[in-house]
Amino acid sequence: MLLTTIGFSKKSLRDFTAALQHHKVERVIDTRLQNTSQLAGYAKKDDLAYVLELLHIDYLHELSLAPTEELLKAIKQKEIPWAEFEKTFVDLLAERKVEATMNEWLGDKVPCFMCSEEKPHHCHRKLVVEYLKDFDSRIEIVHL
After folding, report:
1. Which end is more exposed in the chain, N or C (fewer Cβ atoms within 10 Å of the end residue's Cβ)?
2. What is the rounded distance in angstroms from the CA atom of residue 20 to the CA atom of residue 58?
3. How far apart are CA 66 and CA 97, in angstroms?
């Protein structure tokens, strides 16, 4: 089972959609806490959902996969190191039991977990897919 991830920062709409199409993504799962900011450009919730609809790609905003407002603020303002963010966020995923609803939002589609970070290295979307892989060893992760 292939799980892909993508960040939209520093990507043109053309590059973003081309990456999704190249990897035959059928559902984008938005893991952002906030998805309506003007700063998001083409990745604003309604605009992104429309573009994806034109490409026959489902769009799902899944708040259970987003960090809390407090945790997000702490990492952005460098109040906590990455290792603390990582542990706290993974504990939050476990507390929310996201693995129990994994099949509901994955379905039989090729999913792509999306957030704003350009690269997955210090991004919660990477933590989400790694957490899910712990529950299904068939999962293969590809960061677009």
Report:
1. N
2. 12
3. 13
Tokens representing residue 89 in the block: 């966020």
Q: What is the pLDDT of residues 75-122, one digit of tens each?
A: 999 999 999 999 999 999 999 999 998 888 888 889 999 998 888 888
Q: pTM for the whole thing?
A: 0.91
* CATH of region 2-143, choose from 1.25.40, 1.10.600, 3.40.1010, 3.30.70: 3.40.1010
Burial profile 16-46: b = 16 or more Cβ within 10 angstroms, e = fewer: bbeebeeeebbbbbbbbbebeeeebeebebe
Hey, where are the domains in the chain? 2-143
